[in-house]
Structures are given as structure tokens and as C-alpha cells.
Specification:
Elements lengths: L1 H33 L3 H7 L1 H5 L4 E10 L4 E8 L3 E8 L5 H8 L3 E3 L5 H7 L8 H6 L6 E8 L2 E11 L8 H26 L6 H5 L5 H13 L4 H8 L4 H12 L14 H4 L4 H7 L1 E7 L2 E6 L5 H11 L4 E5 L2 H11 L6 H9 L6
Parallel strand pairs: 8-9
Antiparallel strand pairs: 1-2, 1-6, 2-3, 4-5, 5-6, 7-8
């Protein structure tokens, strides 16, 4: 009976550990896919990945095809960002993994015979250990692929418990993480190569796929809907997420319509209502000698020059808002009922939208 109870206790502990690991893996997977750039994965998220393993250290490399190297980043002294680069060749462990696409599991990095049994050129550079005072022993390294395309290498060092090689469970877990990283690196590299848009935040947060965004431009025009309303309707993107996407792209405040806003009489007295509705901007308020203007595109230099000329000042701060909210503000300020004509003008401008 005692033996059965002990076996049940061990079995329950094993199940609990598997559940914990599964939950931790899902959490770090979500964080990897939510990362804003590759540097965030290499530097900020690596400790979270390391916590999944019975290991003391981790290095994640990204491939640099132009230089035929893999590189990683780390913080020196807690603040200074530094880069390490390794040639893709059989002369180093990470380079060998990148060059051959093979997993390497070593029990002692200083054992020359063990390294030569893998490849005659393979060696371990002890200079890093000498600089850091760290003694590398076990190494488990795996390639990072996305659809047979090399994206990098992931390497864990030194088991916390045990002196033999890393286990099969560690190898399986490393494979799962490498698959996640492969997709993330591919998306990050593709993302940096395409033209930036005000909806990039949605793609980087997996709220919208790139091909969905591409088709939404044309579909919204065909349906004569604003892009914002189309995304909110078809893809259930919240107004808050759209606003955060605008703020990240334009580097300014995102404002929504508020019918309690005080009418800025002095700021609009010389401006024509129909002109403002057509051009999609309006002064909102004055704060610390700066006139705050809401506009559909704060990056439009020509429009900004015109605004500053009409307002007779360069002290203008620009905030972004949805076109329909700008029209609502204009109607509020000029005591105009909202009508179909104003939105027809608005939708007519969509053909000019980037």
C-alpha cells in the first residue's frame, strides 16, 4: 500500500510538472509572437525561455545571410547593448549547427575527442569562459528553421542538475521553442522589409494578418467604408487597438469624439466649416501656447504647412483621429447636424489613402 501511494504521489507530481511546463511554454510563445522586434526576443525574452529548461544559460542567434554569420545581442553591465557574431562554419558549435542544420548535444565542451567525433573541424572557443569566469560544460544547440529556411540557432548551456548530456525531454522542448522562434523571426524580418503603415501594430500583435490588411484596402474602397470601420466590422478590431496602432505610427495622441468638448471659438472663427470637413482637420484646444489640432494624417507635411499658415503660428501640436470623428467635431463646433453629405465627402477621399 505504501509503495502504491508513493507511486501515485510521483505520478501526480509528474502530471503537475507537465501542466506547469505546458502553461509556461504557451506563455512564452505568446510573448515571442507579441515582441515588437528581434532585439526584444534576443535580449528581453531569453530569460523567460531559459526558465523552461534545466539549464544555466542561453544564447539565441539570428542568421545574417549577407555576411554568412549568425549574431546575438546581450546587455553588458546591465545597460550597454553588445553584439556577438559567429561565422557559419564547422569551426564553432553554434556555427556548425547553422551550417549543417543538425542538433548538437555535448556533455563536455572542453572534451576535444567528443567534439572531433562530431566533426574534425569542430572546436570550442574558451576565451569567453576566461573573460567571464564561467565554465561551460554541457551544450545543447539546435537550428531555428522556418519552412526549411535557416533563421538562427538556439543554444543552452550547463545543466543545473546532473553531469551527463541534456535529456531527450530537453531536446524535444528545444525543438518546440525553435519552431516558435522560426515563425517569429520570419515574421519580424518580413515586417521590416515592407512599407510601414498605420496598421502595423495590429500585425505585430497578431490582431490582423498581412494578407488580410492588403485585401482590406481594396475591399473597404469597394464597399465605400472607411478603412477603420471595415477593420472593426470584418475583423473585430477594437477602436482602442486601432488607436494604439495610430499612436505608435504617428507618435502622437489618438483622440476619439467627445460631445462634451468645449467649442474653441477663437481658434475656428476664421476657418470655413466646409473647408475643414473636406480637408479633415480642426483646431481642438490651446494648451501652454500650443494649438492642438486633430487631423487624419499628422505626417502630411503639405497639410501641416497649410494649417500653420492659416493659424498664423508654428506652435501647433497634432493629434490623430478617425476621419468620421473629425467630421463630428467640426459639426459640433459649427452647430451643424451630422448629415450624409459630410460622410460622402469623407468616403470620397479614400481613393487617395495610402
Amino acid at each position: 500500500m505504501l509503495m502504491n501511494n508513493q507511486l501515485q504521489s510521483v505520478s501526480a507530481a509528474s502530471v503537475d510538472e507537465k501542466l506547469r511546463l505546458s502553461k509556461a511554454l504557451q506563455e512564452i510563445t505568446n510573448r515571442i509572437h507579441a515582441a515588437q522586434n528581434i532585439k526584444q526576443i534576443l535580449v528581453d525574452l531569453k530569460d523567460g525561455i531559459l526558465n523552461l529548461f534545466n539549464a544555466q544559460s542561453i544564447t539565441i542567434y539570428v542568421v545574417d545571410k549577407l555576411r554568412n554569420e549568425i549574431y546575438s545581442m546581450f546587455l553588458a553591465g546591465g545597460t550597454e547593448l553588445k553584439e556577438i557574431r559567429v561565422p557559419i562554419s564547422n569551426k564553432s558549435i553554434a556555427g556548425y549547427v547553422a551550417n549543417t542544420g543538425k542538433v548538437v548535444n555535448i556533455s563536455d565542451a572542453y572534451n576535444i575527442s567528443e567534439l572531433k567525433a562530431i566533426d574534425s573541424e569542430l572546436s570550442f572557443d574558451v576565451s569567453w569562459d576566461k573573460k567571464s569566469g564561467y565554465r561551460t560544460k554541457q551544450i545543447l544547440a539546435a537550428p531555428i528553421f522556418n519552412k526549411n529556411q535557416l533563421m538562427g540557432v538556439i543554444q543552452i548551456l550547463n545543466r543545473k542538475i546532473g553531469t551527463s548530456k541534456f535529456s531527450e525531454e530537453d531536446k524535444n522542448l528545444l525543438h518546440q521553442i525553435s519552431e516558435v522562434l522560426g515563425i517569429a523571426f520570419y515574421n519580424q524580418q518580413r515586417f521590416t522589409h515592407r512599407r510601414k503603415t498605420k496598421f502595423d501594430y495590429l500585425i505585430s500583435r497578431d490582431l490582423l494578418k498581412e494578407d488580410e490588411l492588403d485585401s482590406a484596402w481594396e475591399e473597404s474602397r469597394e464597399k465605400k467604408e472607411t478603412m477603420e470601420n471595415y477593420l472593426m466590422g470584418k475583423y473585430k478590431i477594437s477602436k482602442g487597438d486601432l488607436g494604439r496602432s495610430y499612436e505608435e505610427f504617428y507618435r502622437c495622441r489618438f483622440l476619439t469624439y467627445n460631445d462634451k468638448t468645449v467649442i474653441p471659438g477663437d481658434l475656428i472663427k476664421n476657418l470655413k466649416k466646409d473647408y475643414l470637413r473636406r480637408e479633415l482637420w480642426v483646431p481642438l484646444e490651446k494648451i501652454d501656447d500650443n494649438i492642438h489640432v486633430i487631423i487624419d494624417d499628422p505626417n502630411n507635411i503639405l497639410k501641416r504647412d497649410t494649417i500653420e499658415s492659416l493659424l498664423k503660428t508654428k506652435q501647433v501640436k497634432y493629434d490623430v483621429a478617425f476621419p468620421e470623428d473629425i467630421v463630428k467635431y467640426i459639426n459640433l463646433f459649427y452647430h451643424s447636424p451630422e448629415d450624409e453629405h459630410s460622410f460622402s465627402e469623407l468616403l470620397g477621399k479614400l481613393d487617395d489613402e495610402d
